[in-house]
Amino acid sequence: MVLLGLRLAWQPTFLRIIFGELVHVLSVLIHNPEATLQELLEYVPGPDFPTGELIMGNLGILEAYRTGKGRIVVRGKTDVELLDSRTKRSASIIKEIPHQTNKSALVEKIAELVENKSLEGISDIRDESDRSGMCVVIELLNTNILKNSQYYGRFN
């Protein structure tokens, strides 16, 4: 008996959709073997992450398609809500985080950065996530951006 195990290092996708896209790309290449990468990107624009984060630019995607390696920069999705119009205090509401980012670790890292004074302007951070979805509330004293935390992520 021979057993075979595979570990795939590709980014997650919805297989039914991606296979449909790949079949379309193969059809284009059969009919036009000189099709450019730019033309093929119309059918397979990039990875489809399950957590819905935003892909920042497409240079990493182009490089990955061209060479087989590329760095794709992703970030979570947030909303900004005004908490008090009189004091102009607002909150950044994190609705989605990058794939494979641990929400608890993200909240702990932000709290640690605030405690160490590496990240200023945050008055409170709390996790209000429930069955309806993710909701990490970061009350801001100003419009401080979370660039020093796991709010931003990279995939190679």
Automatic annotation (TrEMBL):
GO BP annotations of the record are: DNA topological change
Q: Does the keyword Acetylation apply?
A: no
Report keywords, A-Z. DNA-binding, Signal
In alphabetical order, the GO MF annotations are:
ATP binding; DNA binding; DNA topoisomerase type II (double strand cut, ATP-hydrolyzing) activity
Topo IIA-type catalytic domain span: 1-156
Please state the span of the N-terminal signal peptide per the UniProt entry.
1-20
Is Transmembrane helix tagged as a keyword? no
Q: Which domain of life is it from?
A: Eukaryota
One Gene Ontology cellular component annotation held by this UniProt entry: DNA topoisomerase type II (double strand cut, ATP-hydrolyzing) complex
Q: Which Pfam families match?
A: DNA_topoisoIV (PF00521)
The record's annotation in PANTHER family points to:
DNA GYRASE SUBUNIT A, CHLOROPLASTIC_MITOCHONDRIAL, DNA GYRASE/TOPOISOMERASE SUBUNIT A
| Identification of the protein by name | Topo IIA-type catalytic domain-containing protein
Q: Which organism is it from?
A: Prunus yedoensis var. nudiflora
The lineage, from the top, is: Eukaryota, Viridiplantae, Streptophyta, Embryophyta, Tracheophyta
